[in-house]
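Researcher: Structure prediction, please.
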Amino acid sequence: MRHMIHDLLGPTPGSVRQLHSFHYGPSAGGKVYIQASLHADELPGMLVAWHLKHRLAALEAEGQLRHEIVLVPVANPAGLEQVVLDAPLGRFELHSGENFNRHFVDLSDTIGDQVEGLLGQDPELNQELIRDHLRRNLLAHPAHTPLQAQRLTLQRLACDADLILDLHCDFEAVEHLYTTPEAWPQIEPLAGYLGAQASLLATDSGGQSFDECFSLLWLQLQQRFARRFPIPTGSVSVTLELRGQADVSHGLAERDCQAILDYLTFRGALAGQAPPPPAPPRPATPLAAVELLVAPHGGLLVFQAKPGQYLEAGQVVAEVIDPLDDRVTAIHTQQAGLLYARSGRRLATHGMAIAHVAGERLCRSGYLLAP
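Model: Predicted structure follows.
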């Protein structure tokens, strides 16, 4: 195992930030990249990464690693230090207000222009050519703020990986994941191993999030050169939502760790025979079919449905109660679907998102992510 320390831009004189990456297995051949807690107040993945550290070290000592595996247990040191009045605030950078998981660098046009005269008819050579240009462009790309420096460091570590796993969680939720329709055939076994109750698919959900900054680059290059050059899919990426923020326990983390190792064995990154992947509990559905429920006014938020519960159209999910004028407003679903995530707050503000229901009928378009 190689432990690498990446110095980041410090925000003020005398302050130091570092990103730590742990590298296992051979440096040649395939590559897997796993990071946790890009939203720094989402900690279940950090515990899973800690368990993976120890399991991967043992597997490496036994000679069981066939591909390089890069692990970043703390992907957001900037957000991790944002504790204000005893409240961790790891989703948005306090200086800029930007979501830590948005606005990653898009280099698809630049790389397309650079490789256009160099591509040939060998897809493997084309893949390595694109990866080489991606590495070099990310290394040369300037960072003007600490947030940009942190994003670029993560992209540089992951840009040439065949598989990218980004470990997150929601507020109160069952296990679910986000990936693209194009990647789903490769990710479906992982959904089965994890027991993901919702698998949500979108080619471009908006925002240039970490997982999509890789999948979109390869898709855009494939579309640009479709009639002239064979461009393989260079990175399969997925965001894993490991239940809710309070679901930090060794039992759950060990189970998720084993599921990931089973999947890596299934893919051939680890030696051995993986158990057959079970079918996911539910089929994948479009992210655009997720119904976002919001509070129609402020008040106490009293839920009538729990994460993991399948709801019929018109079913009550929650009530919002104004204790001053005695208004009680029931919030209903518009379509049937799985309630996979809900707010952890119990005081609603007007227009606040309170729950997400994975349906099958398209009901949204454009920007599909939470703020």
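Model: Residues 63 and 146 are 38 Å apart (CA to CA).
Researcher: Thanks, that helps.
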